Amino acid sequence: MSTTTSVDIEAARRFIYDDARLLERHRLAALFDDAPSGRVLDALCPYRNDDGGWGHALEPDQRAPGSQVSAALSALEVLAELGTAADPAVTPLVTETADWLASVALPDGRVPHVLPSGVGYPAAPWMSEPSENGLLTYAIAGHLWELGVNHPWLDTATAWCWGQVEGEALEGGYTVEFALHFLDAVPEPDRAAAAIERVRPLLGKDGTIPVEGGQDDERLMPLHLSTRPGALSRALFTSGQISAELDRLEQEQLDDGGWDFDFLHWSPGQIVEWRGIVTLGALQTLRRHGRL
Fold first, then answer.
1. What's the chain look like in SS3?
2. For the segment 191-247, what is each residue's pLDDT rounded down to a tens digit?
3. What are the pLDDT digits (tens) for 26-69?
């Protein structure tokens, strides 16, 4: 890692090796130290179930052992980070995950937010009851497009996503975030650019959007909504807004070297796991934008 930043990079590294999950430690090594990507898969696969899905608190806010859609999304985020070119072992895992998603999808193509198998296990309030809300479908479809998947369910899910983003106005901060991730990945740039413009009226003057039902004043920031330079969604934000957000991100490093998250801290295990994830994410974002 470079040191052209106000971030204490070595402190961040120590935080991840001291407090983060094995998965994030191997991701750090693969992303920043050229360690073998196979070690990331070795740490990821124990979260996988025999049905082809993922569970076991891979998504820290849903701690059921059985397969959950949110855990499948978390797995696809890691697999997209590795990419099929980096490790051929990624492809069968992606395909089997898509097969599992197809098995739990609703007739219109969307996947439920929480499956009944999660009831009775520790979970964040927004994941404690079964829900057919399909907001995770956007981000999942986006990652599958990033990974170059050819799967029948992706076609159905994509049709559902288009119906939503081109229909009634999107509502809710996380729905907008995941929809933008889909629009940045789906291979129809002109259509996606038009849909992205429909989001503009939902943003505040600072480029943020509130999270309904979240913590007091909880908002999603421009770097949550548009994660990569050059993405279509960057049209929603000024260069000044992005620069200010990168400054803020640098300044939010804590004395222990890590970053924290601004949504509900409801469990000691959840806090430890999410802090490792967001600390690695902060380093990725800063490097992606030339700050590391």
1. CCCCCCCCHHHHHHHHHHHCCHHHHHHHHHHHHCCCCHHHHHHHHHHECCCCCECCCCCCCECCCCCCHHHHHHHHHHHHHHCCCCCCCHHHHHHHHHHHHHHHCCCCCCCCCECHHHCCCCECHHHCCCECCCHHHHHHHHHHHHCCCCCHHHHHHHHHHHHHHCCCCCCCHHHHHHHHHHHHHCCCHHHHHHHHHCCHHHCCCCCCEECCCCCCCCEECHHHHCCCCCCHHHHHCCHHHHHHHHHHHHHCCCCCCCCCCCCCCCCHHHHHHHHHHHHHHHHHHHHHCCCC
2. 999 999 999 999 999 999 998 877 777 899 999 999 999 999 999 999 999 999 999
3. 999 999 999 999 999 999 999 999 999 999 999 999 999 999 99
